[in-house]
Amino acid sequence: MAPLPKLAVFDLDYTLWPFWVDTHVDPPFHKSSDGTVRDRQGRTIRLYPEVPEVLDRFRGLGVPMAAASRTGEIEGANQLLELFDLARYFVQREIYPGSKVTHFERLQQKTGVPFSQMIFFDDEKRNIVDVSKLGVTCIHVQNGMSLQVLTQGLETFAKAHAG
Ligand SMILES: [Mg+2]
After folding, report:
1. CA–CA separation, 103 vs 111, rounded Å?
2. How does pLDDT run across 66-109, given as a tens digit for each residue?
3. How far is the CA of 163 from the centre of ligand 1 (A)?
4. CB atoms within 10 A of CB 126
5. What is the pLDDT of residues 11-60, one digit of tens each?
6. CA distances from 32 to 8, 37, 44, 58, 77 (A)
7. Which of 8, 9, 70, 109 makes the best surface tag, with the fewest CB within 10 Å?
8. Is residue 162 scored above 90 in pLDDT?
9. DSSP string across 74-96
10. Other C-beta atoms within 10 Å of 163: how many?
11. Which residues surround ligand 1, an ion (CB under 5 A)?
């Protein structure tokens, strides 16, 4: 069996959803009577379409998950995770501005999972560069999190840990 990561970490903006929560949308958010998530102006807010399936897949594989975001819109980001029913997937949420190295050091301390056993999905190259230096397997997400990116990520992780 291919080795699996012991923690999968996801960025939020342009990884789980296609916008910057601090810029492109207008908190607070709410769920309207038709079940859609909307911002203060009534605009519909969506995830990348395969995100719930991706998180279900990781859960099925027994891989715990966490969120790591540098957004300054901490309340809005947490609210979206609740409204999209994603908060239940994450054992930890590290959401605050600053270098992502801090987010990962805290994740390591809180979960006890070594950096080498983590996989990280993020759309921003600078985060990939910073977090790679810790020894985390980092996957650069180009068009949002999808099942294809998940498969690529697990293959990359397995190759890095082969033999
Ligand atoms: Mg991002």
Report:
1. 12
2. 999 999 999 999 999 999 999 999 999 999 999 999 999 999 99
3. 32
4. 11
5. 999 999 999 999 999 999 999 999 999 999 999 999 999 999 999 999 99
6. 31, 6, 9, 29, 18
7. 109
8. no
9. HHHHHHHHHHTT-GGGEEEEEES
10. 3
11. 11, 13-14, 123
Ligand 1 centroid vs 56 CA: distance in angstroms? 21
* d(CA 14, ligand 1 centre) in Å: 5
Residue with tokens 């029913």: 85
The strand pair at 30-31 and 37-38 is best described as antiparallel
- Sorted by where each starts, the structural domains of the chain and their CATH numbers stand as 7-160 (3.40.50.1000)
Q: What is the full DSSP assignment across 34-75?
A: TS-EE-TT--EE---TTHHHHHHHHHHHT--EEEEE--S-HH
Catalytic residues: 11, 13
Q: Which two tokens stand for residue 66?
A: 């966490």
Residue 123 is classified by DSSP as S
CA distances from residue 90 to 4, 14, 38 in whole angstroms, order as listed: 17, 18, 22
Distance 119 CA to ligand 1 centre (A): 15
